[in-house]
Amino acid sequence: MEKSVDTAFSGQFADGSAAVDRSANVHGDTRQRNLFDLTEDFDLLFDAVEQDWQEQALCAQTDPEAFFPEKGGSTREAKRICQACGVRDECLEYALANDERFGIWGGLSERERRKLKKRLG
Hints:
two-stranded antiparallel sheet; single chain; mainly alpha; about 5% strand; about 50% helix
């Protein structure tokens, strides 16, 4: 008697021998791989979006020294550039989320970001 097993079948043949469902393992591996691929794709997309706002930032097109002044140096020029920047909110959000401790980000100095973070809780 020839035995043929549908991959989704589970149980016994008429002669009493066991049929093994291998589809669960195959599909499980596929789902796990697909989840991994999806996570990897999401990470790549996130990185692309993150880079996109950074490429659009006006500070990327100007002298970076203005955004990282010496202690006691003026932040006026950097803040003026930030006021006109279309991705200022994304920049500030990034700085707060990544605990940037140096420089002008989103139009705020280190001290101003610390105060804002305290207010936000």
